[in-house]
Amino acid sequence: MEYATLNNGIKMPMAGIGTFLLSPDEAEASVSSALQCGYRLIDT
After folding, report:
1. Per-run averaged pLDDT (10 residues), the chain, 44 residues
2. Cβ atoms of residues 43 and 17 within 8 Å
3. Rounded CA gap, 37 and 18, in Å?
4. Beta-carbon contacts of residue 31 (< 8 Å; ≥ 6 apart)
5. DSSP H or E segment with residue 24
6. Most exposed: 5, 15, 16, 28, by fewest CB within 10 Å?
């Protein structure tokens, strides 16, 4: 996973998952799968 280093030194993942327009059930399944795959950036 690639990261961008912010001005305050915090590293932010370059790839993430978005949940816009997903139903609650779809969002739960998608976020759960993404976390299991190593994603740490979740855009709600």
Report:
1. 96 96 98 97 95
2. yes
3. 15
4. 17, 19, 42
5. helix 24-36
6. 5
